[in-house]
Amino acid sequence: DPQLNRQYTFENFVEGDCNRLARSAGYAVAAKPGGTSFNPLMIYGGVGLGKTHLAQAIGNEIKRTLPDKLVLYVSCEKFTQQFVDALKHNNINDFVNFYQAIDVLIMDDVHNFAGKEKTQDFFFHIFNHLHQSGKQLIITSDKAPKDLAGLEERLLSRFKWGLSADLQVPDLETRMAILKNKTYQDGIELGDDVIEYVAHNIDNNVRELEGAMVSLLAQSTLNRKEIDLNLAKQMLKNFVKNSSKEISMEYIQNLVCEYFEVPIDMVKSQTRKREIVQARQISMYLAKAHTKSSLKSIGHFFGGRDHSTVIYACQTVEDLIDTDKKFKGYVADIQKKLKMS
Ligand code: ADP
Ligand code: MG
């Protein structure tokens, strides 16, 4: 299965209070796909907390113990793209048949279905077919079903049928265990003081924790220095400066306006001039992608608009990125600047 990443196993998914329910539900599902009441199993939580890892671990475990089962991992984006392609090339039937034959469907990041009505509608039918045939569905999302804006009610109600389990930010002890596990996998030895120092200071999510470790190793290699507490302190100074700085909506607004040479205050105004609308929509899109702000507060910030306007803006930008090379280039440029900040 090219879609499943073999690195993501239960064995290296470190257990903690933050993930105990989700992990054990995942285990139960892997032992009896389609045969528990955890169908669908919905795993939700913030970015970098292990949703993809856990969902794939379930898939890998099923492949290992029940090799005859057809397991498919697909991200919501990829599914959407496949659906659009199938429509375009007139082979919806093949597409349907393919999905209906699957025993275990892992659909990653369903919050990305927001605003994509046709794709949602289509997924709804596949979901029903699989569920009725006793097939297992595993779904991940960045929010609990009740908080998923922009998804159709009937689809959300299906998501609530089984079990929803969340992944939370791991506590210090679990973060240390994750770091130990990671270094052990990579064959590196680190002092407990270094592990504790890093785990103590990087407390957003697991992805950043791993990023800090990678950065630490890189510095140790580059400077030909042993990894000790001093190096860890030095690394963290750079790491925090480079990656954890929060991007504000104001900053995005300024950057976009500067890029397109439009007056900053116009973005928040009611004007529908094409270039302003474009700057406004891109700003909203970037705010959604790069800040933790809710759709509601993004709409509010950009001129007191409501959350559906934000969803529409994001959709429009995504569509244009797909269809308009020049536009795609603009957005990529701005994003590059954003990351350099
Ligand atoms: P998400 O899909 O929620 O954004 P990922 O599944 O991509 O997050 O996880 C980010 C990184 O953190 C991955 O490299 C993953 O292996 C690692 N990770 C997350 N949770 C754990 C855990 N409990 N134990 C070990 N590694 C973890
Ligand atoms: Mg993921």
From TrEMBL:
Entry keyword annotation includes Nucleotide-binding: yes
Chain ranges of the AAA+ ATPase domain: 37-167
Superkingdom of source: Bacteria
Coiled coil: none
Record-annotated Chromosomal replication initiator DnaA C-terminal domain positions: 248-317
Residues covered by region (Domain IV, binds dsDNA): 221-341
Residues that, per the record, bind ATP: G48, G50, K51, T52
UniProt keyword Chaperone present: no
Record key words, sorted: ATP-binding, Cytoplasm, DNA replication, DNA-binding, Lipid-binding, Nucleotide-binding
Subcellular location: Cytoplasm
Coarse class of the protein's main subcellular location: cytoplasm
Family: Belongs to the DnaA family.
Functional summary from the UniProt entry: Plays an essential role in the initiation and regulation of chromosomal replication. ATP-DnaA binds to the origin of replication (oriC) to initiate formation of the DNA replication initiation complex once per cell cycle. Binds the DnaA box (a 9 base pair repeat at the origin) and separates the double-stranded (ds)DNA. Forms a right-handed helical filament on oriC DNA; dsDNA binds to the exterior of the filament while single-stranded (ss)DNA is stabiized in the filament's interior.
Note on domains (UniProt): Domain I is involved in oligomerization and binding regulators, domain II is flexibile and of varying length in different bacteria, domain III forms the AAA+ region, while domain IV binds dsDNA.
SUBUNIT field: Oligomerizes as a right-handed, spiral filament on DNA at oriC.
Protein name as annotated: Chromosomal replication initiator protein DnaA
Organism: Mucilaginibacter panaciglaebae
Lineage: Bacteria, Pseudomonadati, Bacteroidota, Sphingobacteriia, Sphingobacteriales
Name of the gene encoding the protein in the UniProt record: dnaA
